[in-house]
């Protein structure tokens, strides 16, 4: 019998892919955690029936969530990752020898456990000596932090369930306080395409703008996320992702990346008209 994984992207649009094997299924106190093996995308981690990571396209997401900020400020030494339990964001960060400390705060230990067992491709640097894992709520974790991180990456689920509080003004205010003078925050900022995701994106961007003086949104192509068109937010105290970006400086590091390059860095901030209008009109 043929087995297919199907995810509802809206009430009227679905994404399906043929399954080789259902490898793992556990319920944590926070969410349903599954790993499936598929013909097209390799292994896929899903949370509450939504694709988080696939072996085939994770490089796009993880390149874009880390290298844009790292290329804007080469002096980033202390990083906080909130969420990101699959380990892909940490893996990319560990490639910079200039980073001294990476704290990762993941609410759900089961996501890390499942990723370590089935997704070594993303989780293989979680044991790097610079990395400290905290299994806590990221919202609480930042409440009492001041001037501690040069970069905060919010690698979160959607604004429902445990991820909801990671899209609030209060959380962004605490992140602002936790950041150093040149601090940057990058967040998973949803998609402009389908109505529900677009509303979440507009709300998140508006709240970031209430707290940070510089807020830009940049895009990337994510084949397995709803519509395939996804956004990250770039919010910072001082630095601008284009004006303060030096392509030669980043290229001289000789990091090999499969999606990110210094042309993509600049191009990703050029948004389609309908997205610009959505953000401008709030
Ligand atoms: N790439 C994914 C996407 O955009 O679909 C996101 C990665 S997934 C690993 C996000 C992680 O955020 C999940 O493992 C989830 O448990 C974690 N998370 C959600 N809410 C959280 C919170 N309040 N504090 C810390 N981690 C949280």
Automatic annotation (TrEMBL):
> What Pfam families does this protein map onto?
Spermine_synt_N (PF17284), Spermine_synth (PF01564)
Which annotated residues bind spermidine?
Answer: 62, 86, 155-158
Which keywords has UniProt assigned to this entry?
Polyamine biosynthesis, Spermidine biosynthesis, Transferase
Which residues are involved in binding S-methyl-5'-thioadenosine? Answer: 31, 106, 137-138, 162
Q: Which organism is it from?
A: Caldisalinibacter kiritimatiensis
- Any idea which residues are catalytic in this one? 155 (proton acceptor)
Q: Reaction catalysed by this chain? A: S-adenosyl 3-(methylsulfanyl)propylamine + putrescine = S-methyl-5'-thioadenosine + spermidine + H(+)
The uppermost taxa in this organism's lineage are:
Bacteria, Bacillati, Bacillota, Tissierellia, Tissierellales
Q: Which residues form the PABS domain?
A: 2-237
Write out the similarity annotation.
Belongs to the spermidine/spermine synthase family.
**Protein's name according to its UniProt entry:** Polyamine aminopropyltransferase
What is its EC class? Answer: transferase
């Amino acid at each position: 019998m043929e087995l297919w994984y199907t995810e509802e992207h809206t009430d009227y649009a679905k994404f399906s892919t043929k399954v080789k094997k259902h490898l793992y299924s556990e319920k944590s106190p926070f969410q349903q955690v599954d790993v499936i093996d598929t013909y097209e995308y390799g292994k896929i981690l899903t949370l509450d029936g939504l694709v988080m990571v696939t072996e085939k396209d994770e490089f796009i997401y993880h390149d874009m969530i880390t290298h844009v900020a790292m290329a804007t400020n080469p002096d980033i030494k202390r990083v906080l990752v909130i969420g990101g339990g699959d380990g892909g964001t940490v893996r990319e960060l560990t490639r910079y020898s200039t980073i001294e400390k990476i704290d990762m705060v993941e609410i759900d230990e089961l996501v890390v456990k499942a990723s370590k067992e089935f997704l070594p491709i993303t989780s293989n640097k979680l044991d790097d000596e610079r990395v400290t894992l905290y299994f806590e709520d990221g919202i609480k974790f930042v409440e009492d932090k001041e001037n501690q991180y040069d970069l905060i990456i919010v690698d979160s689920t959607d604004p429902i369930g445990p991820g909801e509080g990671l899209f609030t003004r209060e959380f962004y205010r605490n992140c602002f306080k936790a950041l150093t003078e040149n601090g940057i925050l990058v967040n998973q900022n949803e998609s402009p395409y389908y109505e529900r995701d677009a509303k979440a994106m507009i709300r998140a961007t508006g709240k970031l703008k209430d707290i940070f003086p510089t807020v830009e949104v940049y895009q990337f192509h994510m084949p397995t996320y709803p519509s395939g068109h996804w956004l990250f937010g770039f919010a910072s105290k001082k630095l601008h992702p284009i004006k303060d970006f030096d392509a030669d400086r980043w290229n001289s590091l000789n990091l090999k990346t499969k999606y990110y390059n210094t042309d993509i860095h600049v191009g990703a901030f050029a948004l389609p008209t309908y997205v610009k209008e959505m953000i401008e009109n709030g």
